[in-house]
Every structure is written in C-alpha cells, then in structure tokens.
Write a structure and sequence with these properties.
Layout: H1 5-22, E1 31-32, E2 38-40, H2 46-52, E3 60-62, E4 73-74, E5 82-85, E6 91-95, E7 109-115, E8 119-122, H3 128-131, E9 142-150, E10 153-158, E11 166-170, E12 176-181, E13 187-194, E14 209-218, E15 224-233, E16 245-254, E17 257-266, E18 282-287, E19 293-295, E20 315-319, E21 325-334, E22 339-349, H4 372-381, H5 383-398, H6 404-412, E23 422-424, E24 430-432, H7 444-447, H8 451-456, H9 458-472, H10 492-507, H11 513-531, E25 544-545, E26 551-552, E27 555-556, H12 557-576, H13 580-600, E28 609-610, E29 626-627, H14 632-639, H15 648-662, E30 663-664, H16 668-673, E31 687-688, E32 691-692, H17 717-729, H18 733-746, H19 770-778, E33 781-783, E34 788-791, E35 800-805, E36 809-816, E37 819-837, E38 844-846, E39 849-850, E40 854-856, E41 859-871, E42 875-880
Parallel strand pairs: 34-37
Antiparallel strand pairs: 1-2, 3-11, 4-5, 5-6, 7-8, 9-10, 9-15, 11-12, 12-13, 13-14, 14-22, 15-21, 16-17, 16-20, 17-18, 18-22, 19-21, 23-24, 25-26, 27-28, 29-32, 30-31, 33-34, 35-36, 36-37, 37-41, 37-42, 38-39, 38-42, 40-41
Helix pairs in contact: 6-18, 6-19, 9-10, 10-11, 10-12, 11-12, 12-13, 12-14, 14-17, 17-18, 17-19
C-alpha cells in the first residue's frame, strides 16, 4: 500500500514529538524513552535491570527522533587525523591538516556554575562539547546525490538529512550503515561507510581514506536507472593557501578506478616553501569503477538533471579565492528486484605533522605513499581484502551473546585512535595527547587506563613500551618520564600502570622476545616503584605526581594497590626469565604490601588514604573519602589474568561502597551542592562521582582551596569504565551494567556525539578503559608465549558467544553447556593450555579424541601434549561430559 508523502511526514513528526515528550524529567520515579533508556530514577527498577541483559539489536539513531545532528563517527584511518561520518552520511570536521588544535572545535561556552578555576566559562578541555555539542563543522563542501529515472519520472535527491523523510544510522563501529528511507520511491538506498579496520594490522588500519559504499535495490516491477554522483571541494593547504597560490583539479585514472586529484601549487612555479607548510598536501575523490564519469570542475548552483551529465574536463585551475569542486559519478540500470553496489572513496595526504621537541616527525603513511592518488590506488588494488577483513571483524565483534548496546559502548572508544588525539610519526613511533590537542606526551597515568589498544593493535603498544617508556623516557634510576620528552619527572601511578602494561604487551606477543630483550629495563623500572616505599612496609609513600594533577603525601590505597599489582606482575615476568632473585624481591614487597594495605588502609567498609605522619592532612588527598580508584590495582590484575592482590571480601565491600555512595542515578542535586567540577554529567543524568564524603567531614580533602578539588565532584568516563570492569570481574554484574549503561545513555545521540567521550578535551584516551569491561565480561585470559587461553563468562553462561583477539589471530569463542568452540576467523593462534568454566566433568574430548584434564574450583584445565596451531577458517571443538 502506498503512503501519501504528507501523511508519512505527519507520522514522522508525531513520532519525534512523542520522543521529546517522554524525555521530560519526572522527579522521584523512573521514566524511560522509546529505546528503554533510564532517564531519571531513585532506584533502578528490577525490570530495567533485567533489560540490561537482553541481547537487543544494533542501536539505530533516527532523523525522526532528532538523533542525527551530533553524530560524528571517526571514519578515517587510525592515526591519520579526524574525519567524521555524520548521521546522514556526509563527512564533516576534516581535522586532517595538522593544525594541532585543542578540541574538535576550540571554543568557550557559558555554564551555570563555577568550573575548576572558579569561572563560569567552559573550554574544550573542560567539556565545552559536552554542554554544547559540535555539529556542521564543514571547512569544505562534500556530498553525494542520487538521480533516479523510472517510468516517465526523473528525480534528484541529495543524500543528506534535508532531502529524505527518514534516515537511520546504525552505530556499529568501525562500519556504520545508513539507510535513506522514502516509501514513495521505487528504491531502497543504503550506505556502508568505513575506513579499513583490521585488528592486528595497524598499517592497513592506518590508511588516510574513507570508503563510502552505496547499495541501491530496485523494489519495483520495472527497471530503474540510478546515477550516484559524489563531489569534493578542493581545500588543500586549508590554512596556508594565499593569493600567491592556485588550486588544481585533475582527472586521474587508475587500474579499475577513476577520480579527481585535488592539489595546490604556487603560481610562479616554485613550490619549495609551500611544500613545507604544515597543512600542505592533496586529496583524491574516486569511484572504484573504470566506467566512472569524472569532471575536474562540477557546475556551480543547485543540482539539476544537467549537472549529472559530467563534462570530461581533464583539468581545472582556479585561484584560492574561488571555489573548485570536482565530481565523479556512476550510472546504473537496475532490473526489478535487483541490487547494485557503487563504491566510492576519499583519500588525503597531509604529511607534515610536527611537534616541537618530539623525536620523530611527519606522518607514518608518508613512508608508503607519495600522495593521495597513491593511497587510492593501494586501496582499490586491495579493496576486496581490505573490505572483506574489515567486515569480518565487524561481524565477528557484534556476533555475540552479550547485549548489543554493551558491545557498542565497550568497543567504540577505540575510535579515539582515528582522531587527532593519536598520531603515528614517520619513524613508526606512536604519540598521543590525552584528548584532542590537550596534554601532550602519551601520558602514562592516563593511557595506562586505555585497555583497548593493547588488545586490538598490540604491536603499537609493544613499540611504545620499548621505544618510549623503556627508552626515551627511562631515567637512570628506573623512573619513567610520564610525558616522554615533554616532562622531567615520573608519575607514580603511571609508573605502576606502565609495568602492568608491559606484562600485558608480553602476554599479547607470540613469543618471549619482547620480554627478554627489555628485561633489564623492566627490572629497573620495577625497582623504582619498590624504592618509593620509604619505610619498607610494602606501601608506597613517596610524594609523587598522579593523574589527579597533584602530589599527594601519605599511603594512598589506590596507588598502594596499583604498585602491589605492578610489582606482582614484574615478579611473574621475572619467573619467566628465571630471575629468581628478583622473584623473591617482588614476592616480599607484594606480601607485605597486601597485608599492610588490608590492615591499615581498610576502614571496615572501604579503603582510604592514610595521611603522612608529619604533614598530616595539610596537603590535598582523598583521606577518609570514598575514592573511585581505591581498588584499581585489583581491577588491573584481572585485566592480565593475575589472581588476587587484595582480599576478595574487602574488595567487594569497597566496590559496594562505591556503588552506595558514589553512583548517582541523577547527579543533579549532588553537583549543585558540590560545585567546581567540570560538566561531564548534568542534572537528569546518571554517573559515578570521583570522590564522596560518607563521613561528612568539613574539609574531607585536607585543604579548603585548590583547583584540583573540582575533580572530586566529576563523573569521568574512564574511571567509571575501570570500576565497571572491576565490578564485572567480581560478580557485581548488575552494577557493572548499570554503570556502563549510564555512560552509554549520557552519550546518546539525542544529546551529544555517541563517539566522543569527553574528559580533558574530546575523544579522551582514558575512555578506552571501556574495553576492559568486555574483557572481564568474557573472563578472557591469554598468554601468547605460553600458548594459554581461558574464558570465564560472567553472564549467559549456558549459551555464551563473544569475540577474542590473540597475538596473531582473532575469532569467536562460544560455549553451550558442555560444548566449547574456538573458531578462528583471521590469522593464527598457537595453543598449549586451555581453561574453561565447568564442574563435575568426567570426560573431555578434543574433536573425537579423549584427552587428559584437571579440575579445580569449577574450572577445567586442558594441557595439550603438543602445541596446536589453528589457522583462519579452522575451529577447535571441546566437549565435556
């Protein structure tokens, strides 16, 4: 049945109005919107908690609910700058020109309360884009349009939000699906947008290109002709271009593709000075089809039938003050019921990345490519593999038994790598800010929270540990400069977190070469931690910088526990290299530290900060407050498969205290009563406050005035994800999901960009702690050199399925009652030992062969007689009865 356009639009409007109505806050009871998001509540009702476990489906944001305007999914290659995919399929932001600005949109916005320094102005690093989300930053004109001819009708539609009654955006990073919906048209139009993203392959995941693949299905009974045209404005040298320069568009033809090369040159013919500019480079728009039409200068003015008949202009030159836009198009005849696909891409080349005083400059992709045309030629040549493997990862990640929303939220933060937070220099070195353009130097006390990179692209983290932390930044006494060349001192939490990361990087290696090559420096870095314990009680007490930007005195539970976990990890590495002397040193430290932490820093309910015996509480600290990271060391231990570093019952008590005192289903009244924090959660939103004061002390943080006090009243997602990961590991699954969902809902597209978790600027690195919650939900443990793998799901245990990534391959693990399957999708994996949850097992079969096993505390451990190597496409079947 055909729907009249007027009625369809009216229905859309009613849907949108209903969505807006249901979002109005209602004090004192739970309300939900059409997607079952908890909006405000005193206590989450049981039915809402139950809904968190439901598998659900991919999140689809809709134009009719006003959910597209803020969406900006990073869709360029990792460490290649920032290109956003908008909710309607257009690309925006275009921060690819090496400007190194702070924030995706440097701005200051007004706020209704004091923030940190006492002012009511919020900068990018204070959360400007949380209060006033960015949208429509378009320094260049880019888009696509569709021309349809069917029957005696001709119709042209831009593929944008204004031209369709409905558009849906499916938020499945790293590949998004956008549907353009109009029931009156004879076709269905779908866009799949991505840049190649292949775990373990950082080079092919780091291509400066965005692929836009359009599918058009003819749902009518008669043939349809469809032409898709894309255009790109030449804005090369965006900031440096002057009247002395001119822009040039040239039609280029490669093997199986045709497009436009957008360049710039100096009018007098000497480009030497221009080529040294930070934003110098070129761009390329192409269609992956040799039959594509291309025009170096698209006609100006509104789209008409004529503008789809591209004239074969080979080259066009214009002054920089004139608009120059190239276009490509593909013509299709679509029989009834059939679907066609047209693949387009936009590549860029801005090689002159530079930071003063940093070793290594220029962009890594410049090692392989001379310009954007070379990028395009590579992508087209390898398109079948790049698209297939990217799609395989997307399908592998989301083909899980865990809730869709959970899989989205725990993974999408790795898109931070595809923003200007993260860079890779021509030397191959990884270097990053904390958030876009804010706080330089791959800061150890921030990046140590970011679990995603070491699991998805472990080679990047191994190189950073070796080249920077144990190289450029390593001091003679073993201290690690916490911002590389940008700093002159270590940070104690960053130091401990880096030793733990070294253990993770070792585990995510195929052999022990990394550990053995770096052991002497790892030992030195660990001894530095041990030497910060001045009184020898296993509890670090030397005043040093930490991630809350202050030097704290005394014995601080979260730092003490983190140091214990780090030294324990070092002891395990020492055992692997047979350094028994150091094993004993580490064991002595961790045993004393654990015993004293549990007896001296546990107040019967949660862990505290014991002040320095001389200074007392005259300096800033957390003291008797309930601090979000108080048992962070145990959380980290679970990430690398270690057993307990802090007593389980005391740890659970501390986590329950955090949920009781710090988690707020509506932070509004709390932040109103405790001003000074940055606005990372607003009234009507849920979150976990960094520090609360259950004892109601008058000066709980020791000092009355310090700008860092504002931190204690904030909700920062990286810390929240860390706690959620820990709760998940300890069996507090309801609480872990509730906290993760709070973050997910704060970043719903109706309010702000779902892909931009903000702390000190946009796309903040600490938010990649979210991947750790997935790790603990799967109960995943892995040690590549030992060939060890284990799974212990925390939910859906009778019918569980989730992805896994190892040193050299990735795939899917599933368990259904006594049947366990590892299906490898990519690469390879070598296995010696496997461990699964199960009790009462009498027999274990590998395929049809009965194999020996041992049981302990509800787990079955299988030690293979000889290493087993799985290749992509193979699977391992284990049955337990």
């Amino acid at each position: 049945m055909r729907i009249e356009r007027r009625k369809f639009l009216r229905n859309v409007s009613l849907t949108m109005a209903g969505a807006l109505t249901v979002r109005l806050p209602v004090v004192g009871r739970a309300i939900h919107d059409s997607q079952h998001r908890l909006l405000t509540t005193i206590q989450p009702p049981a039915e809402w908690i139950a809904s968190l476990y439901e598998r659900g489906q991919a999140t689809r944001y809709l134009k009719s609910r006003n959910e597209l305007q803020y969406i900006g999914m990073p869709v360029g290659g990792i460490m290649c700058g920032t290109v956003y995919l908008g909710g309607d399929g257009r690309l925006w932001l275009w921060d690819i020109f090496n400007k190194n600005q702070e924030g995706i949109e440097p701005k200051v916005v007004d706020y209704n309360a004091n923030v940190l320094d006492g002012g009511k102005k919020v900068r990018s690093r204070d959360g400007a884009c949380y209060i006033a989300p960015s949208k429509d930053i378009r320094p260049l004109d880019q888009g696509f349009a569709l021309q349809l001819r069917y029957g005696n009708k001709t119709e042209i539609r831009k593929l944008d939000e204004h031209s369709w009654p409905e558009i849906s955006f499916e938020a499945t990073y790293p590949m998004a699906t956008i549907r353009y919906i109009d029931p009156l048209l004879p076709v269905e139009v779908t866009l799949e947008a991505f840049s190649p993203f292949i775990p373990l392959n950082e080079d092919d995941s780091g291509l400066p290109v965005t692929i836009l693949s359009y599918k058009i299905k003819n749902k009518s009974n008669t043939p349809v002709t469809a032409t898709i045209m894309g255009w790109l404005e030449n804005k090369t040298a965006l900031y440096s271009a002057a009247t002395a320069h001119e822009r040039v568009n040239t039609v280029v033809t490669g093997t199986g593709w045709r497009g436009i090369n957008a360049t710039i040159r100096t009018k007098n013919g000497s480009n030497e000075a221009l080529e040294k500019q930070f934003d110098y480079g070129n761009m390329c728009l192409a269609a992956f089809d040799k039959a594509a039409m291309a025009n170096s200068a698209m006609p100006e003015g509104p789209l008409t039938n004529k503008s789809f008949t591209l004239m074969p202009e080979k080259q066009t030159v214009k002054d920089t003050g004139e608009k120059l836009t190239g276009a490509v198009a593909l013509y299709n005849t679509i029989p009834p019921g059939k679907t066609i696909r047209n693949d387009f891409a936009i590549s860029w080349y801005s090689p002159n990345l530079h930071f003063n005083g940093i070793q290594g400059e220029g962009r890594y992709y410049a090692n392989k490519f001379a310009d954007a045309v070379a990028v395009m030629d590579y992508v087209n040549t390898h398109y079948e593999r790049l698209s297939r493997e990217s799609r395989l990862w997307k399908d592998t990640w989301y083909d899980a038994s865990l809730p869709w929303w959970f899989m989205e939220r725990t993974f999408l933060n790795i898109s931070t790598l595809a923003t200007t937070t993260a860079h890779r220099f021509r030397s191959g070195r990884f270097w990053a800010w904390e958030g876009v353009g804010a706080c330089e130097g791959t800061c150890t006390h921030v990046w140590q929270y970011a679990q995603a990179v070491g699991r998805i692209f472990p080679a990047l983290e191994r190189d950073t540990r070796e080249r920077v932390d144990l190289g450029i930044a390593l001091l003679p006494d073993g201290g690690i400069l916490f911002r590389g060349e940008a700093e002159k001192r270590p940070a104690i939490d960053g130091q401990a977190g880096t030793v733990l990361r070294i253990y993770r990087e070792h585990q995510m290696s195929k052999d022990s070469a990394f550990l053995e090559r770096n052991w002497s420096n790892i030992r030195k870095a660990t001894l530095f931690i041990i030497h910060q314990d001045r009184n020898g009680d296993g509890m670090e007490d030397t005043p040093m910088e930490n991630t809350l930007d202050a030097v704290w005195d005394g014995e601080i539970a979260w730092i003490v526990g983190l140091c214990i976990a780090a030294v324990k990890a070092a002891g395990l590495m020492a055992a692997e290299v047979n350094d028994q002397e150091f094993v004993a040193i580490c064991n002595d430290y961790t045993e004393k530290g654990r015993r004293n932490m549990e007896t001296q820093l546990f107040n019967g309910e949660y862990f505290i900060h014991q002040p320095d015996k001389v200074k007392g509480r005259t300096v800033i600290g957390s003291y008797n407050t309930c601090h979000i990271d108080q048992v962070y060391g145990q959380s980290w231990a679970f990430q690398v498969g270690m057993d307990r570093v802090i007593d389980r019952e005391k740890t659970l008590s501390a986590l329950k205290a955090l949920y009781r005192y710090n988690y707020k289903s509506d932070v509004g009244s709390y932040i109103a009563a405790h001003p000074g924090g940055r606005p990372y959660a607003l009234a009507g939103e849920a979150g976990m406050i960094l520090n609360t004061n259950p004892k109601n002390e008058p000066y709980p943080f020791g000092v009355k005035d310090a700008w860092q006090l504002g931190y204690f009243n904030e909700c920062m997602t990286g810390f929240e994800h860390q706690v959620a990961a820990h709760m998940m590991a300890e069996g507090m699954t309801d609480e872990a999901l509730t906290l993760t969902r709070a973050v997910h809902d704060r970043y719903h597209a109706a309010k702000r960009n779902p892909f931009n978790e903000i702390e000190c600027s946009d796309h903040y690195a600490r938010a990649m702690a979210s991947y750790g919650t997935f790790i603990t939900a799967s109960g995943f443990q892995y040690h590549g050199p030992k060939g060890y793998i284990a799974f212990a799901p925390t939910m859906n245990k009778d019918n569980f399925k989730a992805p896994f990534v190892t040193a050299e391959g990735w795939g899917t693990y599933s368990q259904h009652k006594g049947h366990h399957v590892l299906q490898l999708k990519y690469g390879k994996v070598t296995l010696n030992t496997l461990r699964f949850q199960h009790s009462g097992v009498k027999q274990v079969k590998l395929g049809n062969k009965t194999i020996p096993f041992k049981t302990e505390n509800g787990f079955v451990t299988i030690q293979l007689d000889q290493p087993l190597q799985l290749q992509a496409g193979q699977q391992l079947d284990i049955t337990m009865v």
